[in-house]
User: What shape does this take?
Amino acid sequence: MTAHAMKGDRERCLESGMDEYVSKPISADKLLKAIQSLIPGKADKNSSPATHDDDPSTTFDKESLLNAFEHDWSFFKEVVDIFVNDYPRMLNDIREAIKTKDADSLKRNAHTLKGMSRNFQMEEAAKTALNLEEMGDKKEFDGAKEACEALAGELAKLEKYLVDMLVD
Assistant: This one.
């Protein structure tokens, strides 16, 4: 299990001796399939092998989203609450990091928002956050302000969807 989900990471991990590869965000189904594939004779012959499709849909799919949280409504609400309370501050921290050219803060906050976005299967926001994270890593700020505002719009849509989902 790893947070490394960049192109080529899976191959490098397997070449270095790992038996299987599962990257964040982890779903119980993906993890179970990966574990089953490693136990001789234990894998369900009717189940498909572990998949390595780490690109969640950019469309909102309530059932798929709840499956990712194993239909644990209480846990889902808790994670939504954390997201709704934390992401505005992180966006402001990113804006400040861009203004002051603080690459470490840009990278750290963008990384966290990337993970939050993937938890809710919002791949478009995750890609934008990854772009900002890489800008911080390279200490490159050209286009960062625009990327931050694009991310803010994507996260606002996600927040609305999640809050509406909780009200339903």
